[in-house]
Amino acid sequence: MPLRETLARVDADLAAGRIPVARQRLRGLVSSFPYDLTLRRRLAEVYRLYGDAAEAGRWMYLEEDRNAGETASFEARYGSPGWRMKALAWRGPEAMAATAFAEGQLAAVRTACAEELGHPVDWDDPDSYRDDLEEEYEAPFEPWTVGGVLAGVGCLVGALAFLAIWVSGVVALFD
Question: How many helices and strands, by DSSP H and E, does the chain display?
């Protein structure tokens, strides 16, 4: 599906309260277009709807106007440079970054990982930094947030509305 069409679906999903669907579409787009900082920014906005500062920080990490608190949450959740490399989901050389700031951030994470492991690492070769991923990542428990609860309620309301429409359509078939 073309980028523009998928983004239109993201907008429709968000307008209808289908936040998890919008998030999943954006994750797919970031995977397909890792150099597009606009997609990463949109994904951060969706995570803010959940109240997930660490994930918002993850997707804004390459932006100069990022939120310091979100960045700190991201760095705390993904505590080592290897985990940050994995989390940033970058591919290719840092020179492909859209901005000098993003290029510098990527180079800093890669350099820190290489220094920690004692050998060169490469964005395109996860095995090169796998040693830093030996410990299984476990997301820390975080209490419910207002944004997360509202996102869940919105999904529930959307599902109930869909079910009501579907039931009324089935009933209309038998009338």
Answer: 8, 0
Using an 8 Å Cβ cutoff, are 84 and 129 in contact? Answer: no
Distance CA 85, CA 109 (A): 7
Note down pLDDT in tens along the chain; length 175 residues: 689 999 999 999 999 999 999 999 999 999 999 999 999 999 999 999 989 999 999 999 999 999 999 999 999 999 999 999 999 999 999 999 999 999 999 999 999 999 999 999 999 988 888 876 655 545 555 555 655 655 566 656 665 666 667 667 666 667 6
Q: Calculate the dihedral angle through the C-alpha atoms of 28, 34, 36, 39, rounding to the nearest 10 degrees.
A: 30
- This prediction has a pTM of 0.73
Half-sphere exposure of 169 (CA within 13 A, CB side): 6
